[in-house]
Amino acid sequence: MVALLGPSGSGKTTLLRIIAGLESQSGGKLGFHGTDVSHMHARDRRVGFVFQHYALFRHMTVFDNIAFGLTVLPRRERPNAAAIKQKVTQLLDMVQLGHLANRYPSQLSGGQKQRVALARALAVEPQILLLDEPFGALDAQVRKELRRWLRQLHEELKFTSVFVTHDQEEAMEVADRIVVMSQGNIEQVGSPEEIMREPASRFVLEFMGEVNRLNGEIRGSQLFVGAHQWPLSFQPMHQGSVDLFLRPWEMEVATESSERCP
User: Fold this and answer.
1) Under CATH, what is the fold of the domain 2-205?
2) Domain spans of the chain?
3) Which residues form the ABC transporter domain (predicted)?
4) What is the rounded distance in angstroms from the CA atom of residue 137 to the CA atom of residue 222?
């Protein structure tokens, strides 16, 4: 599960739409499991897409919404009515909405709508599942519950998914890998731990949560911060003024001064 993480305007949704085939890239190649799909039509890419605001059909029941993708497949690929019913019933049970099969979207909560949208995307057995800020329209408590559920479902079904978010906590909790983006560029790709502990740029460091900045100066192999001085355990590549960044949990209050490098 990959998270495209970044502030508004960083290009996350554009990249997601390029993967889906809804927009075309200006250069480079796009591959699914080793196959170049750069010029393949969106309908042939076997991609499931969950939109931020669900995009459920208001005039269709929950059952018919989930079945929709199967009913519009080319005739040679389309399952018969009995197979579609069996598939949709399985998906309803999987997303724990079997008791709501005959309801309409207007009769559902936000979390229930999101599960219907997810089941509809999974019905066609996509190569890749794409989610555009899937939890953005939900309240905080429902959002937490739904992302735990999605993570568990992902572990059970073992599908590849890419989701867009601007929420650092969400990306850290749900994703296996995070792609941090800024102004159309990829700043860093890595595991949640790598992104947090080994940021590749100042932007990544500051974007990934609260950080304290201190003014310092390197002279030789010594770091000076205010009236304090510490020896560096590495050979510095830079001399002079520096910024020292510390996460809150990387600091502790001490009653005595220490000679250890901060």
Assistant:
1) Rossmann fold (3.40.50)
2) 2-205, 210-250
3) 1-208
4) 50
